[in-house]
Amino acid sequence: MSKETLSASGARIRGDDYQHLVAWCQALRALQQGSDITTVGVEDPDPSIGNADDITVYRRGGRNEFYQVKSSVDAKEPLNCTWLTAPSPSGGPSILQRLHEAWQNLTHNGQFPNLFLITNKLIDPTDPVIALLDGRDGTVARQLREARRKSDAGKMRRQLASHFSIEETKLIEFLKDMHFRVGKLHEEWEEYAATLMYALGLRHDSMAVEQGVATVRRWVTDARRILTTDEIRH
């Protein structure tokens, strides 16, 4: 009997479902009482955002948020600097290079962005940089900045700066705004969505969550890539 494996199209569908579920959660955040979120984007068309356009959250008072969402079929390939700095399958910029470019563009446009890489991948605890993830905000900048030059983290700090062709101080500036939200499974996002829906007085069973994801899917297929809070509520 042949071993069952997920096809490439099946993996893409899973990835889209994961991204749309995360987007649904951001839309629900916008509707919470006291929220200062004004607009949510899905595959935001703003060219300056680059590859941080999977989901965007614009706020009235707080810092705007820009998300790249990556779903993994299994845990064979953990999140580490090797994966983050690998060229794209077509030989283009790495994930981190694309996020850094988006951060540069947004910063130059006068914004103070918070970037998020959301993935169900687990961290590689042996990676000298990823092992420094702050348990509060998912950044690595604080400890990486203090790492001794000859330590493994210090050596990787130099390699990352070289990867971006920037100075190490500029690297730390970028990483202060780069948040890694990792290891959160599809089911955990469903539970989060259900909690947000309950707070809004909506149905919050699994079928209702699926309908929310389907709503985001319709936004994408109908080319409704930017929605105000009122449009989301409607």
* Overall number of strands: 6
> What best-fitting shape do the alpha-carbon axes yield?
globular
Share of residues in strands:
5-15%
Low-confidence stretches: none
Series of H and E elements: HEEEHHEHHHEHHEH
Our measurement of the CA-to-CA distance between the termini, rounded to an integer number of angstroms, reads: 50 Å
Number of helices: 9
What class do helices, strands and sheet pairing give? alpha/beta
Rounded radius of gyration (Å): 18 Å
Which sheet architecture does the biggest sheet show? 6 strands, mixed
Helix content: 40-55%
How is the largest sheet built, in terms of strand order?
A: 5-4-3-2-1-6
Structure characterization notes:
The chain is α/β, with parallel strands linked by helices and 234 residues long. Helices cover 45% and strands 13% of the residues. Helix 1 (8-31) runs parallel beside helix 7.
Short description:
This protein is an alpha/beta fold and 234 residues long.
Write the layout of secondary structure elements.
Layout lengths: L7 H24 L5 E6 L12 E5 L5 E6 L10 H4 L10 H14 L5 E6 L21 H6 L5 H13 L3 H9 L1 E5 L3 H14 L6 H16 L4 E3 H5 L1
Parallel strand pairs: 3-4, 4-5
Antiparallel strand pairs: 1-2, 1-6, 2-3
Structural key phrases:
234 residues; alpha/beta; six-stranded mixed β-sheet; 6 strands; 13% strand
